[in-house]
User: What shape does this take?
Amino acid sequence: QFELSVVIPVYFLGFDFSLTTMSFYLFFVCFFVIIFLFFGTYRALVVPRLLQSLIEFMYKFIYSMIMQQAGIGGKQYFAIFFTTFCFILFSNILGLMPYGFTTTSHLMITLSMAFTFNFGFILLGFYLHGLTFLKLFVPSGAPKALLPLIVVIEIASYLIRTISLSVRLFANMLAGHTLLFIMASFVMAFLASSYSFLGLLPFVIILAVSVLELGIAFIQAYVFIILVTIYLNDSLHPGH
Assistant: This one.
């Protein structure tokens, strides 16, 4: 789960383009999402099948979230939010498979996504509103004497969004898989001893934690998307 290893070594002109476990699973998750969406929407029926119903539920779920948090102006960004939700969700779920690899349990992946979104929102804010976007950092009704301090705090809190957004997803995935690893180590230790029957308790805990991790996989994808929709609303309506 936590060690990068080379799957296919590739060297070209002195550069290392080797396919690692990280890059392999990034391609695998993207491929899985494409296949999932393709077969779920191919020859869609008026009375949907199970897979089509699941995709329609996800579609309505993300769409309503965007409309509630960002309003009608956020509708045009639906595609990237829906795709990101699917990517995070399936990255989390596929990482629970035996011998799986969770890309979202690595800070570099979550940090890249969070930085890309937040940097894009800054550019979008200045593109739509120009310098009036800076009103976002000046709360209405703030005392003038405290205004310089408040502006510094607002800018710092805005910039730290990238850290909080990435660490929240990374830490939850890392903690869950670490717990599973620890409990699995107890099972193996008991099975190797003369008290093998004691391995049943940590095994039951592993099953319970695995079910919990499935719920966390969805919750963390939901939390990531709802936060970026809130951040999008700040770029669309900086004066509110």
